[in-house]
Design brief:
The chain is of the alpha/beta class and 221 residues long. It has three helices and eleven strands, in the order βββββαββαβββαβ. The model has no long low-confidence stretch (mean pLDDT 95).
Length: 221
């Protein structure tokens, strides 16, 4: 296991699996904790790593106030520990690299979208992908050293680096790239409010609802 801090409240856990296990970009794993008295708690976490043939995967976990599993992972798990995981799970919010994809994420919602971006870069399919991620401030951006590139745009809502020309503010229609509406699939991930806003912007931009896939992140942790 390798543990990397992404932000003050998020860590990426790189797990070694018993054997290579194929996953699709956008899928998730369930992490289950079991106490000595038999009590269990489980949470689902999206895979951040690109699908490949290795026996490793990355889960990025945000620490939530009062969250049983996320607090344990952040405060107690160290390199060398073993975790009980089950997956990969999911077959709808996935991208296999065979058609254009517009990725729109809010905060921690960037995690499954990062798997898609990494997959595109790994297989030289970057021309098929555009990612827009909305965060409050630079210190809240996951994968800050890796995410920037010609495929990605970061929207800052409360504070931005001096080098960014766009004024701070919520996501707008002008922030969303124009792709072929007839063939593109949009993947939207984030809080419920963010997903509603992003979906409305996409529909307003001409994308039909059947071409929009939404994954909402709840408050459980």
């Amino acid at each position: 296991m390798e543990i990397t801090r992404e932000t003050a409240r998020a860590k990426t856990f790189r797990l070694a699996l018993p054997a290579p296990t194929a996953h699709r970009a956008g899928q998730h794993y369930v992490v289950r904790l079991t106490a000595p008295d038999g009590y269990t708690a489980s949470r689902s976490y999206s895979v951040a790593s690109a699908p490949d043939a290795s026996a490793e995967l990355e889960l990025t976990v945000e620490k939530l106030d009062g969250g049983e599993v996320s607090t344990f992972l952040h405060d107690d798990v160290i390199v060398g520990d073993q975790l009980d995981v089950r997956g990969p799970i999911g077959g709808w919010f996935v991208w296999d690299g065979d058609s254009p994809a517009l990725l729109v994420g809010g905060g921690s919602g960037v995690v499954p979208l990062m798997a898609m971006l990494r997959f595109a870069r790994l297989h030289e399919k970057s021309d098929l992908v555009r990612l827009v991620v909305s965060v409050r401030a630079p210190e809240d951006l996951y994968y800050a050293a890796e995410l920037p590139g010609p495929e990605s745009t970061v929207v800052y809502t409360r504070a931005a680096p001096a080098s960014v020309a766009r004024p701070v503010g919520r996501l707008t229609a002008a922030d969303i790239p124009v792709l072929g509406a007839a063939t593109v699939t949009a993947f939207v991930c984030g809080s419920s409010g963010f997903c509603d806003t992003a979906t409305d912007l996409l529909v307003g931009g001409g994308l039909t609802v059947d071409r929009i896939r939404v994954e909402r992140f709840g408050p459980t942790g």
